[in-house]
Structures are given as C-alpha cells and as structure tokens.
Write a structure and sequence with these properties.
Layout (H helix, E strand, L loop, with lengths): L3 H16 L15 H16 L7 H10 L12 H15 L4 H13 L13 H12 L4 H12 L6 H10 L12 H25 L9
Helix pairs in contact: 2-3, 2-6, 3-5, 3-6, 4-5, 7-8, 8-9
Length: 214
C-alpha cells in the first residue's frame, strides 16, 4: 500500500496540473494521455527498480518521480523540467523539507529530461533510476494500446493500417536504453511482448501472403 504522505504530494501535483492546463496531451491524437497518471506510473516504476537496492536515497527518488512533470502547462513544455524544479522548490519550502533533501530532489527533476545522460555519463544512481522509470512508461503492451488508440482518432479503416503503425512505432527496432540489470530485463520483456503480438497479428491478417493483396 502506498504511504499516505505520497498521496498528499500526488494530490498537490494533480491539482497543480489541472489548474495550469497541464494534465492532458497537447496532441489532439492523444487525448487519452494523462500527465498525472504518467507520473503515478513513473513512481511505481521507481518502486520496482529501487526495490532491494542499498546506498541510494529512495525518498528523494520517489519525490522526484512525483514532481518531475508538474511543470507541464498548455505551452512551452520544452522547459517543463525547469518549471517542475521551481514548483517543487516552492512546495518543499512551504512543507519545511530539509534543504539537503530538497536540493537533491531538485537536481533529479532538473536533469530528468536529458535521457542522453544514460549513455556513458557518470551520474548518480537515483538519476539513473528516474531516467529509466520515465522511459519505461508507455512501452510494451501500453505502447500497442497507444498505437491503436491514436489510429482510432484518425479513423483508420483497416487492421492492416494498425499493424503497420505498430511496426513503425511500438515494435520498431531500437537498442535497449537501460543501464541497470533489472531495468534492462524489464525493457527486453516489454519488447518481446510487442514483437510476439505483432507476429501473431501478421499471421492473423495473412500479411505477406498472396491473399492479402487481393
């Protein structure tokens, strides 16, 4: 069960996003996406990835996951990480949080959009886990659902279009971006699920057979 203190922080983030029109996606094809629900899922990925780990500041990691996207609004979201960090700073001061803890969380929030940091950079484990958790969301089975829902919003008129869209998006070939062993295993499993789904769908639709082109 989630600690009650996380619920209070999450409610603050939900209210802030709602007030500042940052809850939904600005892309009209993705009305099903919720920035707040994404933040909850990233938090749970942080729980999973940090489980059993010693020597890391888990509370700072979890707080950063909760607040990492609170700065989304209806415009200029390329700078959302900076806004998120400032919003958390103000909240932390109001809540009388320890300044060292506050600075750690702010550092994680400010850096979370730079996914290139996972590639060979010397970064602390908390940031590694936050970057991994953020990337993990909406992949695998969720990625397939995203593809199908997005196509539905453009009124796609065939199963084949869905298949090819999945192949170009959730089932596209890409290297495993994760660093920790646990995250790499989760990522590989997600990709296996999508690849198997695409394989079965292609078989059902007879993709590549003479009948398909009639």
């Amino acid at each position: 069960m989630m600690d009650e203190k996380y619920m209070a922080h999450l409610k603050y983030v939900k209210d802030y996003l709602t007030k500042n029109h940052g809850m939904g996606s600005p892309n009209p094809l993705h009305p099903f996406r919720s920035r707040f629900q994404h933040s909850i899922r990233v938090l749970h990925w942080c729980f999973r990835l940090a489980e059993g780990m010693d020597g890391i500041n888990k509370e700072a990691l979890y707080m950063a996951a909760i607040f990492h996207d609170v700065g989304y609004a209806d415009q200029d979201n390329e700078r959302h990480a900076m806004r998120s960090g400032r919003i958390f700073h103000e909240y932390a001061v109001e809540q009388n949080m320890d300044s060292i803890f506050r600075d750690k969380v702010e550092h994680l929030i400010y850096a979370h959009s730079n996914k290139k940091l996972l590639k060979g950079a010397e970064i602390d484990m908390e940031l590694t886990l936050l970057l991994e958790a953020d990337l993990m969301d909406e992949e695998g089975a969720m990625g397939v659902v995203w593809d199908c829902m997005a196509l539905g919003n453009v009124h796609a008129n065939s199963y084949a279009k869905a298949y090819y869209h999945i192949m170009e998006n959730s089932n596209k070939e890409e290297p495993n971006p994760m660093v920790t062993e646990k995250a790499r295993a989760y990522w590989d499993e997600k990709k296996k699920i999508v690849a198997k789904f695409a394989e079965l769908l292609a078989d059902d639709l007879m993709i590549g057979s003479p009948y398909f082109d009639i």
